[in-house]
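Lab notebook, bench 4. The sequencing result for the construct came back, and we need a structural model before the next group meeting so we can plan mutations. Quick request posted to the team channel:

Model the 3D structure of this chain.
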Amino acid sequence: MFKIFRALLRLDLFFNLKSSKTMSEQPNDNQPHADALQTARQTYNAFDNFVTIREDDSTLVMAGKLLLRFIGIFIMILLSPFLVIGLFIAFAAVL
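Done. Here's the predicted structure in token form:
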């Protein structure tokens, strides 16, 4: 019985220490979020530059780039419900 009480006390102390973060520690939590956004932005820009139709592209290359752009749009549409569900779960976990 004493071991259970001691374990519960440790858990309570752990959660109290976790919830008592200072305001100065919060910007560190946002850093991975900013890095992920920057990486996503760079990846999208690289894809957009790759599928941009240029003046010296042949007709076959233009068709391929259009096909790749439509596939990219289709993939984004397919992934959007999962992103919405993930955001909903994240906000629910925080609240």
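The chain has a mean pLDDT of 77.
Will bring this to the meeting.
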